[in-house]
Amino acid sequence: MRKNILLSIAVTGTLAISSCSGFLNVDNLGKSTIESFFSDIDGMKAAGVGLHKTILNFYDGSYLRFGDIGGDTQNALRVASDEALLRMYDFDYYAEDNGGFPYTIWKNGYAIATNANNILYYGQKLLDKYPEYESEIKTHFGYAYFARALAIFDLCNCYAMPYGSTADASHPGVVAIDYIPGFDDNLSRHTMKECYDRVIKDLNSSLKCFGNDELTNPNYISGLACEALLARVYLYMGDYANAAKYSSIVMEKVPLAKHDEYVGMFRKAQENPGEGIFRLNTYDTGSGMRALYNPTGNQKLQPAPEFIAKFDDSDVRKELFTFTGEKEDGTQYEGKEYTTVCKYLPIKSGVSDEKNRRSDFFVLRVSEMYLIHAEALCKGASADLSAAAEDVKAIRARALGTTPEKIALNWMSASDLDSIIQEERTKELCFEGHRFFDIKRRMENITRPQSTTSTAKSLTWPDIHYALPICQLELQANDFMVQNEGYSGRKTIGE
Fold first, then answer.
1. Which pTM does this prediction carry?
2. Reduced to 3 states, what is the DSSP secondary structure of residue 325?
3. Whole-angstrom distance, CA of residue 30 vs CA of residue 438
4. How far apart are CA 373 and CA 50, in angstroms?
5. How far is it, in rounded angstroms, from Cα 372 to Cα 232?
6. DSSP 3-state assignment of 418?
7. What is the CATH number of domain 5-211+465-477?
8. Which of 51, 53, 206, 376 could in theory staple to 145 by disulfide, Cβ–Cβ 3.0 to 4.6 A?
9. Inter-axis angle of helices 192-210 and 223-237, to 10 degrees?
10. What is the pLDDT of residues 202-243, one digit of tens each?
11. Hey, where are the domains in the chain?
């Protein structure tokens, strides 16, 4: 039996991330080495830090890019020299790209899952040995369960058709691995139902570890983050009752950021954590997303002018599309205005202090919960359209600096209101990795603005490019891996 890529990641992952370095050579590691690593509580702490790092690598690698670049809100500029980015933008991906983003997302996603599995397995042994550390170890368990759930869910977003594309969700998902595999294990894809069952089970396990803890620091996973992710997962499943349930729990505990705090929660995260439920900071590592939207001659992407035009002039969110160089910079920015995405830019360029370099990714924030709640109430069996409309009014009123009662929504039916919700969702969560996946989960066509520089003006559901191909390296290493329909490589077991 040939060695599996997933297994290689599982063997190397924990030790690799503990030092914040790249993956170690599998030939240099073995089970005994990992057991030694987890022989005391310091090893567990290091693994926890490393697990957090792998989540950052996943989001800052290619996942967030894929979630937005495949959508309909931005144009490519200087991508001719960036073949990988251009192919992502043009839906030009293939299994043989063993060094590109179809492989990178796969590798980084399973680095999260397999390191979580190591923590859960060896952490239990550590707990049996040192019961006095039960509270601390269970916190690490909570992190691991959440991280594994997040990874499997996000991998399904990339490599599988949406949950509702078959009536019983029996179509292929990904490998919902929940243990440390052996070299002879056959790792095959689970159904989407099995994947989502695993995700929900893990989130409930994580919630038990954290309990009903209050949010103290959005840069760390919490019980509230579990409830927020459950709301998102249930929305993707079309389970609107549970989506409404869990989103409402979060909405009751975390307020929306105020109008005058909105820009600051992206640009001054350290001073203003805003409405974050779980966010990842990048001030000490740099940011791949920051490089995409950097307002210099190297800028690669811009919000489409047709998309910017959807915002009212008084909409505070529109400020995040304009960057004006500040006098303090003393760089090429000074006195110049750029149209770009400012959600990932530091407050100042050319500075090294933490305060001014901080630029975070939102994984979960409460605005999304309002929009999940609205969609769930609008589309659920027990529809409450008036309540759904109030959720949208709250988001729009905050954006415009007014009160919900002064917001008028023009809708005559559930379908009308649903369209309003989706437009508000697109504007509120733009460039945070949602747009392509939102279109995909709703099984809709992609129609790009007329100004797009992409050769792919549209994508018609259910085109094969709504799901990434399984990379050829995985197919070659794993006899039991099934390729997605329409792509080259192995289609069935044994072929």
1. 0.92
2. strand
3. 41
4. 33
5. 7
6. helix
7. 1.25.40.390
8. 206
9. 160
10. 999 999 999 876 778 898 999 999 999 999 999 999 999 999
11. 5-211+465-477, 260-286+299-363
